[in-house]
Amino acid sequence: MPTDAGIEVLLIGTLDTKGPEIGFVASEIERQGARVCLLDSGTAGVPALPRPDVTRDEVAKAAGTSLAELGLSTSRGEALERMAEGVRVVTLELFAAGRIQGALCVGGAGVSLVVPAFQALPVGFPKVLVSPLASGRRTLEMFVGTRDVAVMHSVCDIVGVNALSEAVFRQAAGAVVGMARAMQGPRLSHSGRSIAATMNGNTTPAVMKIREAMAARGVELIVFHANGVGGRAMEALVDDGAVEGVLDFTTTELSGEEFGGMMGAGARRMEVAGRVGLPQVLVPGCIDMLTGGPYAETAARHPGKRLYRHNPALTLVRLDQDEMAHMGAVFARKALAARGPVRIVVPLGGLSIPDSPGGAFWDEAADAAFVGALIEGLDGRIPVDLVDAHINDDVFAERVTRHLDEALVESMAARTGALDADG
After folding, report:
1. Per-domain residue ranges of the chain
2. What is the per-residue pLDDT across 193-233, written as a single tens digit (0 to 9) for each?
3. Which residues, in sequence order, are bridge partners of residue 10?
4. CB of 298 closer than 8 Å to CB of 310
5. Residue 203 phi, psi dihedral angles, 5° rounding
6. Model confidence over 357-387: pLDDT tens digits?
7. Residue 299 exposed, middle or buried by CB count within 10 Å (0-12, 13-18, 19+)
8. What distance in Å separates the CA atoms of residue 83 and residue 130, rounded to the nearest whole number?
9. CATH number of 8-183: 3.40.50.970, 3.30.1330.60, 3.40.50.12020, 3.30.470.20?
């Protein structure tokens, strides 16, 4: 196949231990019409053929160290952390120069070296990782994080090119080349105005109504599933400067973080947009609950709590009155830290599907405790719009849409005023 002059793939691996295998993958990438930029991320042993385009010495130098210094490290883990920084720096330099259109890493535990680089590359840039560690009783968090990393299980270990590994290697090469070609095709036209939003199954009806209303205004909602990773992925996008505002409609990840649910998203959740000064509309969607695993397991972990079978794998746990008061204080504290415009909208008729009159989680006293603690914590510094409706009612979606409109206008006016003052 003729070489595609527009595609060069960064192939990353430890040539001291995986040289022949990585060499085969390189030949497959070239056979499928792309060029290869080979980076050696090894730290020990003698590099095997093929010769790298970026040597391990250059990787170490990019991390501000040398292989000799790394050899004196107190642990292998410390040396790998430094090399991972070098891989990140080199990868971003190649990306910024427009030299590479995709990246592929093949290896065992050594694939950890590419994680910082893959997390630093933008969404939409092809990233493929092949490893025997990509299965078993592990989560993909260690490989994927908040980026669009394609993870492929190598089935057998990365030891030799055999009948099994050959098939996997060929597919991996085809995947990264195909992904790079796909990204060179024509793109859909977008409005250019984007808002990040959070949603889950219990808030889908409302968020979809708001999405439709904002689309009619020329604003695109980029929706993230509030499942622990989704909130962090949204905030990574915010940090990247890719959106002009946030509709944090489903803040259940705060409850998961505070009380040990599966959907916790870290201690800094609901703080990033405020730190960078983006306009926000904040809604306590599903903050009345946290998410556990299968019913029996969740019942044993949360004795005496009201439970709701969401599906066979997930069970929802209702927060009690004291816990809801705690969440009101947490919500207020995070909102007050924001540097940009903030609107808070609270539905008084229930915060989730089961939290509705007659529903399994309906508890007016608990929800009132949240509202009371929220208002007390805000101390009049941020107004709260209390809406006599359920979170998924049309009237509530319309009210939130109006606040989102106003927050965007307010933010735009503030930016224009700042530019005029500077000019």
Report:
1. 8-183, 194-422
2. 889 999 998 999 999 999 999 999 889 999 999 988 889 99
3. 37, 103
4. no
5. -125, 5
6. 999 999 999 999 999 999 999 999 999 999 9
7. middle
8. 19
9. 3.40.50.12020
